[in-house]
Amino acid sequence: MELGFIWMVFVIIFGGAVALNWLLSSLNSWLYETKLGDKRFSLPPGDLGWPFIGNMWSFLRAFKSSNPDSFISSFVTRFGRTGIYKTVMFGNPSIIVTVSEASRRVLTDDERFKPGWPESTMELIGRQSFVCISYEEHKRLRRLTAAPVNGHEALSMYIPYIEDSVISALNKWAAIGEIEFLTELRRLTFRIIMNIFLSLESEQVMAALEKEYTTLNYGVRAMAVNLPGFAYHKALKARKSLVAIFQSIVDKRRERRKKQPSKSKQDMMDALLDVEDEHGGKLNDEQIIDILVMYLNAGHESSGHMTMWTTLFLQQHPEFFQKAKAEQEAIVKNRPATQKGLTLKEIRQMDYLSKVIDESLRLVTFSFVVFREAKEDVQISGYTIPKGWKVLVWFRSLHLDPETYPDPMVFNPSRWDGLTPKAGTFLPFGAGSRTCPGNDLAKLEISIFLHYFLLNYELERLNPGCPLMYLPHCRPKDNCLGRIRRVSNVGCIDRTNKEKKRIESADGFA
C-alpha cells in the first residue's frame, strides 16, 4: 500500500513537471508565433525556450563549459542541418544563421536588414556608436573616419610608434620574467589605440580606462539583469565612468583648441571635432563619445587577444614558427641600408605571416556572432524571417565548418595556399557596409608585434594545459601566464648602426 502511494506521488510529480515544462515551452510560441498567422508555418525549425529566458541559459551554460559549440550542436541534433534556426536570445525572437550564403545575404542586404543588437548592448556601447546608428548615418561617419584609421597614409604614420611600443614592451617583459601575456598585450594595444585617437599616454588615465573597459566587456554578452552583483549592472556603471572620463577629455580638448587653434589634425579626436556634413553640421559630444567608446574598445581587445593567440599557435607548431621567422629574416636582409624600421610595403609583403594571422582569426573567431534585424519579412533558404525578428549570424559555425575547412579545429596556415574563401565563409571582421572599420589597423599591429617577436623572442607558458574561457572572448583562464625569453638577434644583424641605436633607445624608454 505504501509502495503504491509512493509510486502515485512520483507519477504525479513527474507528470506535473512534464506538463509545466510543456506549458512554459509553449508560452513563447504563443507570444511570438501566433500573431504571425500563416507565416508561422514557414519559420525555420528551432526552440524558443522558456518565457523571458528563451535559450539564454543553454547559451551561457555552453559558453561557460569547455565546449561552446554544444549550443549550436543541440539545434543540429534536434532539428537537422538546416543551417537556420528559430530561438529567443537576449530577450528577442531570433533566427540563428550558421551557413555561408544566408549569412552573406543578411550582412550585405542593407535594404532588408539593419543593426539588431540587443537593447542591453546598445545601452553599453552607445546609441550613437557605429553598431547602432542608421545605414545613412553609418555610411557618412565611416566615410569621414576611414582615412584617419585605415588609410594608407595613416597606417604608414602609425608604424614607427607601434614599432617603438612593441620593441620597448618585449624588452621590458623579457626583463620582468613571469607575466600574464594577454594582460600585457592588452595594455600594449590599448596604449597604441589611445595614442592614435587621443595622443594620450598618461598611465593613470589609461589604467582607469582599461579597468572600466574590462568590466564593460563582461556585461555585453551577459543577461540584462540590472541588479547589484550581476555583470550587466557592473557594466552599466563602467559605461557611466567611461563617459565621464571621455567627456572630461573632450571638454579639455575643445578648450585647448580655442586657446591654441591649429590647422593640422593631431589625432582622431581632432578629426571628430572638425568633421562637418554637407550642411556644416558637426558631431555633438554624445556622438563623439560613443564613437570613442566603440573604437577604443574594439581597437585594443581584438588586437590584444589575436596577437596572443597567433603567438601561441606559432609557439605550439615549431615548423610554422620557423617558416614565419625565415620570412621576417628575409625582409630585414633585403632592406636598404638607409631604411629605418618597417614600412607598410614590407608588411604587405609578409605573405606567409598573413596566412598565419588569417588562420588564427578563423580558428579563434574573436567575435563569434553579430546581430541584425529584419526590416520586412524576408525569405531565405525557403524559410521566413519575420519583420522585427533579430538575426544572429553565427561566425563561429562558419569558420569551423568542416566542408569549407577540413579538420577545422587544426591550426594549419597552409590551408590558405591558393585559397580564396567563398563569400560568407570567412568573416573575422564582418562583411558588407558594416565591416569592422579598423580591420587593417588591427592586422598591422599584429604583424608588427610578430615581426619582432619571431626575430628575437620565444614564449614559455607556465600552464600550457590551462582551461579556456569563452566569454566575453576566448582566452586561457590564467591570461596566458608565462615568460618572454630573448633567444637571438640573428634577424637584426643587417640593421645599420643608426637603426640599432633607435631600437636600443626604444628599449631603454621602458
Description of the molecule:
- It is a single chain.
- The protein is α+β, with helices and mostly antiparallel strands and 510 residues long.
- It has a single domain (36-509), classed as Orthogonal Bundle (Cytochrome p450), CATH 1.10.630.10.
- Helices cover 55% and strands 10% of the residues.
- It contains 18 helices and twelve strands.
- The chain has helices spanning 2-32, 56-63, 70-79, 100-108, 119-125, 135-150, 152-176, 181-198, 203-220, 231-259, 268-274, 285-316, 318-333, 344-348, 351-364, 395-399, 439-456, 497-509, and strands spanning 84-89, 92-97, 113-115, 178-180, 369-374, 378-380, 383-385, 390-394, 457-461, 468-469, 475-476, 481-486.
- The strands form four sheets. The chain has a five-stranded mixed sheet. A three-stranded antiparallel sheet has the order 4-12-9. The chain has a two-stranded antiparallel sheet with strand order 6-7.
- A hairpin with a 2-residue loop joins strand 6 (378-380) and strand 7.
- Helix 13 (318-333) crosses helix 17.
- The longest helix is centred in the middle third of the chain and has 32 residues, at 285-316.
- It is globular and about 90 Å long.
- The model is unreliable at 490-510 (pLDDT under 50).
Domain tally: 1
- What is the number of helical segments per DSSP (H or I, 4+ residues)? 18
Distance between the first and last residues' Cα: 82 Å
Going by CATH, the architecture would be: Orthogonal Bundle
Strand order within the widest beta sheet: 1-2-8-5-3
CATH superfamily: Cytochrome P450
Which CATH class applies here?
Mainly Alpha
Care to count the β-strands? Answer: 12
Mean pLDDT, nearest integer? 87
Shape: globular
- Unreliable sequence segments: 490-510
Protein structure class: alpha+beta
Q: Largest sheet, described in full?
A: 5 strands, mixed
Q: Rg from C-alpha positions?
A: 25 Å
Q: Give the DSSP E fraction (strand runs of 2 or more residues).
A: 5-15%
| CATH fold topology | Cytochrome p450
Helix content: 55-70%
Order of H and E elements? HHHEEHEHHHEHHHHHHHHEEEEHHEEEEH
Pfam families: p450
GO molecular function, one term: ent-kaurenoic acid monooxygenase activity
Protein name: Ent-kaurenoic acid oxidase
Subcellular location: Membrane
